[in-house]
Amino acid sequence: MFIYTEEKLQVCEVCMKSYSQKNSFNMHMFIHTGKNIHVCEVCEKSFYQKKFLNTHMRIHTGDKTHACELCKKSFNRKSNLNVHMLIHIEEKPYMCVVCNKSFSQKHGLKTHMRVHTGEKPYVCEVCKKSFSVKRSLNNHMVVHTEEKSHVCEICNKSFRLKAYLKVHLLIHTGEKPHVCEVCMKSFSRKCGLNEHKLIHTGEKFHICEVCKMSFSRKNNLNRHMRVHIVVKS
To answer: Which residue ranges does the record assign to the C2H2-type domain (predicted)?
Structure first.
């Protein structure tokens, strides 16, 4: 399966890749033969190099040896840590060719592109409603189960999603973490801040389909629509 050259290199006859050490050559040959000699005792998955088995074992042990020095979050693979570090250095090498929005991770860009393509690959098996992100589908499924497992310890009100409980708790704490950079007004919810910003930008996304009058807030549009409603006695 191999050829000895004058430089004492071992060359693979299949792909012509060469090695100076026999051990490295033997390891390489497992790729072509399909022979995996290192077997996981838990799930019996096999690997042709022991280092790959060692990395795989962290799935079963939960061992996360690669820790971020900034936020202390840990990972079972160094490659995952490297991807995570992009969050801290704010490097965003993946840019959308449509709107120029950039992302630190490739899968973030891939998910974002569905905004432009309209693709929604995650479909609810109960009501057939589709979603562009799997997380949104998981959140939606709670609607069908009607389970409200997240309970407020102060007033015992329960919520389907943990995110809803976190927003609710701001009522009790009075915390308003979302601050307008223009006038420094603060809001408990990000959607409230986003709606407030329209005052400064002058943008009016909510348009009346009857008279084309536009509004910065949807509730103002709803109030306006009463003008067009003809009351029949």
So the answer is: 10-37, 38-65, 66-93, 94-121, 122-149, 150-177, 178-205, 206-233
